[in-house]
Amino acid sequence: MSSEFSGADLIADALAQLGVEHVFAIVSIHNMPILDAINRLGKTKIIDVRHEQAGTHAADGYARASGKLGVMIASTGPGTSNTVTGLYEAQYGSSRVLVITGQAETAFYGKGLSYVHEAENQVPMLASVCRRVESPRHIEQLGNAFNAVVNDMFTGRGAPGALEIPIDIQYAATAPIQVVLPKAEGFQPDADGLTKVVEKLANARKRIIIAGGGVIAAGAHNELQALAEQLDIPVLTTVDGRGVIPETHPLCIGNYYNSAGMYNALLDADVTLAIGTKFAVGVGGQFAAQTPPGDLIHIDIDGNMIGRTHTAQLGLIADAKSALQGIAAQLQEPSPNDSQFNDGVWQARDGVRAAMRARLGDDWPQVMDCIRDKLPADSVFVRDQTISAYNWGNQQFPILEPRTSINPTSGAIGPGFPMSVGAAIASQRKTLVIHGDGGFMFHATELATCAQYQVPLIICVFNDSGYGVLRWLQQNQFGRINETDLGKVAFAQMAQSMGVPGQRVASVDEFSAAMDTAMAAQGPYLIDIDMEHFAPMEISVMPKRKSEVDIKS
């Protein structure tokens, strides 16, 4: 084997320069040089996943939990097509996930000669779910292509990207490159705009804050909490913004903006400061009707998001951290929020929380409390789209720190488990995922990955023998169910067959004991929760159908 520095070495060295400590991969003849170069360099560890879609979701979870670049290395053709769903989720969640893939050698690329795994339209396929895709045709283009993709991903709002590298370019001789990332200084707020925002905030007395995932992405949680405390402002979060302020903090409302009871209590606000959120409208578009009360100040690093869902009286394109620092520097002894307004908000918050908890029945509040009591504050808590996530995981379970709350932003079923694998590897701390049995089957084979690398992950499968949310929706909309019963799977036995210990539980006490066992385990542990033996909860996740929604302009 040649000792020359190759295109594959360039990629391995560039990833090391970026501080990428782990990459997810499935080996193939079209990426072997890259994986060999990574192992020879010895600065990045390869995690061998069992499916490229799961690996891309894992890279996404890795990115969200760490704030670093998440990387999936795939094969050209079928391997890369499998990454598309993961890239779709990353695009939806503004997550920095890089897919590096091979391609037929340049002498055959585009000739239609059925070269093995040839995918002539791979670039446009990837471009449908990535902000930037590059495909160098000569070794001299490889370094610039890598830098172009990565710089795009780290400029402004996060986004996935992809790099396609023909196999002969991976073997070709070249020289190292220097990787330099852009800085957030390019997104400093406009001075006049910032002054107007400060004036609007200073003159208001009934203010609320809506904080989204952009605050966490910018590392601006401390600045946001400081502003809230200075002005005594109630803080609502989006589901992706959870953790910007501890949900036990007296100023935190949490992810309840879309609750009718909470929204009605906010209507008297004179200013809404929304920062780092795109105001996703939800299933059926019903949340588009919930116009932020008072004058909307919308701050986002992506100008395309400002005013897209709701008209903004003041818009400011800026990195969340820079904007919040600028606001704090200019505010001069402003008056705190109106205490009567705040009291009404706190009363509504406590009422909504109590009402939602009451809907959980006798057992599920105890399960939720058990997890929070036993799970460290800095552990990552991941949810898939399942009844338990809708009813308590996405709102009622207290999130205490940034980057410890992850869920599929796109609403997809199934990404939760592989995302939790990536999050656990990124944090190297005990991580817990709550999952439905239907969605868990999408990527159950990643149990083998958990066993191989002794991933510190607690997998809670809430087993109701089917797609519980869809079953409930069908019964309510059609009076019958269709294709949502899946039969009961013995998940603990499945896990044990792949080297992951686990057990089935049928009571709160059994669950509590299983949590103790799982917390003591060095590696992964699966808890199969037989929902048939727990007191039922009232499902409260049904959005109205689109035809029933009054969407206001």
Topology:
Blueprint: H1 7-17, E1 22-25, H2 32-41, E2 45-48, H3 52-66, E3 70-74, H4 78-81, H5 84-92, E4 97-103, H6 122-127, E5 132-134, H7 139-153, E6 161-166, H8 167-171, H9 191-203, E7 207-211, H10 213-217, H11 221-231, E8 235-237, E9 252-254, H12 260-266, E10 271-275, E11 295-300, E12 314-317, H13 320-330, H14 339-358, H15 364-374, E13 381-383, H16 387-393, E14 405-406, H17 416-427, E15 431-436, H18 437-440, H19 446-453, E16 457-463, H20 468-478, H21 491-497, E17 502-505, H22 508-520, E18 525-530
Parallel strand pairs: 1-2, 1-3, 3-4, 4-6, 5-6, 7-8, 7-10, 8-9, 10-11, 11-12, 13-14, 13-15, 15-16, 16-18, 17-18
Provide key terms for this protein.
single chain, 553 residues, alpha/beta, Rossmann fold, 3 domains, 6-stranded parallel beta sheet, 39% helix, 15% strand, disordered C terminus
Give the N-to-C terminal Cα separation: 65 Å
Number of strands: 18
Discrete helix count = 22
Q: Write the CATH fold name of the largest domain.
A: Rossmann fold
Mean pLDDT over the full residue set: 92
**By CATH's scheme, which homologous superfamily of the largest domain applies?**
Thiamin diphosphate (ThDP)-binding fold, Pyr/PP domains
Low-confidence stretches: 542-553
> What would you report as the Rg, rounded to the nearest angstrom?
24 Å
What's the CATH C level of the largest domain? Alpha Beta
Helix content percent band: 25-40%
Major sheet: arrangement of strands: 2-1-3-4-6-5
> In the CATH classification, which architecture of the largest domain applies?
3-Layer(aba) Sandwich
Strand content: 15-25%
